[in-house]
Amino acid sequence: MNQAEKIGHREGAPATTPAWALEFAFSLAAAVWRIPQAALQGRNRARRYARGWRLGLHLAHVGLGLSLTGASAGLARHRAAARRACALTEDSRDLAQWDRVLDGLERALRLWCKQISHEMAECVR
């Protein structure tokens, strides 16, 4: 079983998430906050970087259906940090405009991953 297949998923979510899909979730979060993606991997506690990794964890958990353990593994964070990040992101949904942005990001991530997976399957045939 490869690393991508070891990532935990929530019940009802796809059985595996390729590493490129998890990477894209974090790339998307970095782009939203206009920060270098490499900053998400470090332990920099600057607010602008923290917002990025919180959003990345949230997108991996909600958008890709990863368990909190699986999402936190993508950034080498503890599960408790992922739980807190997702809770903070969910709390920010009280702002209607941000809620629409998060919905759009989650939907875009799922659609992009589905399309890429389909195209990759076509290439293998």
In short:
This protein has 125 residues and is mainly α. The protein has seven helices and no strands.
Fraction in beta strands: under 5%
The number of helical runs is: 7
Radius of gyration equals 14 Å
Mean pLDDT: 80
Give the beta-strand count: 0
Q: At the third CATH level, what is the topology name?
A: Chromosomal Replication Initiator Protein Dnaa, Chain: A
Question: Termini distance?
Answer: 22 Å
Classified in CATH, the superfamily is DnaA protein, C-terminal DNA-binding domain
CATH architecture heading? Orthogonal Bundle
Number of domains: 1
Secondary-structure content class? mainly alpha
Overall geometry comes to: globular
Which spans have pLDDT < 50 for at least 5 consecutive residues? 1-15
Estimate percent helicity.
55-70%
Largest sheet: none
List the helices and strands and how they pair.
Blueprint: H1 3-6, H2 19-32, H3 38-41, H4 47-63, H5 68-73, H6 79-91, H7 96-124
Walk me through this protein's architecture.
By secondary structure, the chain is mainly α. The protein has a single domain (3-124), classed as DnaA protein, C-terminal DNA-binding domain (Chromosomal Replication Initiator Protein Dnaa, Chain: A, Orthogonal Bundle), CATH 1.10.1750. 70% of the residues lie in helices and 0% in strands. Helix 2 (19-32) packs across helix 4 and helix 4 (47-63) packs across helix 6.
